[in-house]
Amino acid sequence: MSSTHPDGPIPANAVEVSGVSRVFPRRQGRDVVALDDVHLTVAEGEFVSLIGPSGCGKSTLLRIIADLDAPSAGSLSVFGKSSRQARLDQDYGIAFQQAGLLPWRTVAANVGLPLEIHRVDKGARRQRVGELLEMVGLTDFAKSYPDELSGGMQQRVAIARALAESPRLLLMDEPFGALDEITRERMQTELVRICSETGAAVVFVTHSIPEAVFLSDRVVVMTPRPGKIIEIVDSGPDTGERRDDDFRDAAGFFHTVARVRELLHGSPAAAALSAARGVENR
Amino acid sequence: MTQTLRLLGRMLLGALGVLVLAGLWEAYKALGPDSGVVIGGTTILPRTTDLAMPHVWEMITKFSDPVASFSGGDTVASAVWSACLFTLKLSAIGWVIGVVIGLVLALLMTRFRLAESAMLPWIVLSQTVPLIAIAPLVRRWGSQIHIAGWTWTSEASVAVIAAYLAFFPVAVGALRGLRSPDSTHLDLMHAYGVGWWRGLATLRLPSSVPYLLPALRLAAASAVIGEVVAEASIGLRGGVGRLVIEYAQSAGGDPAKPWAPIFGAIAVGLVSAGAVGLIGLMCRPYRRGETA
Known about the structure:
The complex is a heterodimer. By secondary structure, chain A is of the alpha/beta class. Chain A has two domains: 10-91 and 169-180 and 197-282, P-loop containing nucleotide triphosphate hydrolases (Rossmann fold, 3-Layer(aba) Sandwich); 95-166, no CATH class. In chain A, 35% of the residues lie in helices and 22% in strands. Chain A is globular and about 50 Å long. Chain B has two domains: 2-53; 76-287, MetI-like (MetI-like fold). Chain B has helices at residues 2-31, 56-61, 76-111, 113-126, 131-142, 154-178, 183-191, 196-234, 240-248, 259-282, 288-291; strands at residues 37-39, 42-45, 146-147, 150-151. Chain B has a two-stranded antiparallel ribbon. Chain B is globular and about 75 Å long. The chains are: A alpha/beta, B mainly alpha. At the A-B interface, helix 4 of A face helix 7, helix 8 and helix 11 of B.
């Protein structure tokens, strides 16, 4: 789907962030350092999660990549271009914690919104919307309105909308944060499938450790005040294994969860304890 | 089917409300003391004489009487009817002018923060000026306007005053509505690289509809009030406002007569609010957010 890019050679990396800082100035008191000297590279087709407690700047980093916010220092490139150019070229699709569907549009019209805005003609639009709705399993709901859907279904519509223009990069800011645990796991499995179908790189913000470990090739562990990357943990099933529900029960999965938890808590003993209990750290 | 039944039920309830009101009126008139209810020298409830409170049926039958007792000319009903049409037309013009001005102001205030801080206080202040005071002023200023053979008429003054009341709810309501999209939606538009006008059309205007509709209805009611008061204070002939004053002068001999144009004014208000309700029906898809 994303393989048709006639304009020149594809640069190796989807996102390159080097030395990015973001400082929010405040009138009184000290400025808030949301991000401090962050370096991160996301390869083409790679799934990278940003995890950390509130205030660690993970959402800020995502917004900077999306050109919804600007860095105070440092530089970044998205597919070798400036983030602004990448945004204007629609190189990425984006999904937020709130589905953010327009309530007066049907599901189909919501999915087709970016295509409509960028003046894709009607026939092509209808076909693409059909494909996307099939991909997220909502073909029967094309004519429904968002208020007739459950939270999980709304979020699937939002993901379909993010994929509308076949972006090679998907930016997701806690897209499953407002869903219940059962729906959430189902959505994660579906996202893995969709990503393997589209081959898009993903930057995924979350504060759920199992979610990050299940989905990602690499988990970026961040710490607050100032927002920094502590470590980047490789994740994923053993070679030859598939990333499916069995992976949730694999030893490698628990090992990575424990490792990430340890990094977040800073104390191995406490981390081991909570890992043994299998509690989700939020 | 159930929907028509529900509509019918609501209409019945509305009619019942009017009947209850008429019943209360007659009940108090029959049971209350002639001199009214007075506590400590202050009249709490009105006198119940025929002069102060004519019977409901007298008010109704008044419509079929001739306007002047000595001639067999027009009935009160036809006089009130033509006055209502006149008033309705001018209020509609005032409403349209007011809505356009209100929307333009709201757009300016949405686009430029500076415009909001500069204009909003004045917009609020404008509504505190008594209508009685500005009506003659508008007429005097207007009478100096002559554009290519067209001269300012009293009708124009009255419509402008109606617009003066009508623009306010629209400006305030539309401003709230245009500001109503949440940050996720705004981020999304930004991510799509959409310009301000395109964002206005795809996001801000549709999401302002639930705020705009009540504002438009309020504007319709305000336009009628402005219209009636302006007619009375400028002394423009032909409308309900003038008729209220005229018939009030004969209240001494004919206490039911002044009620006819009052009912007329109420009818004009209901019709204009109802017409705006029709706009609401057309905008139904944009009101889904109200229930969601």
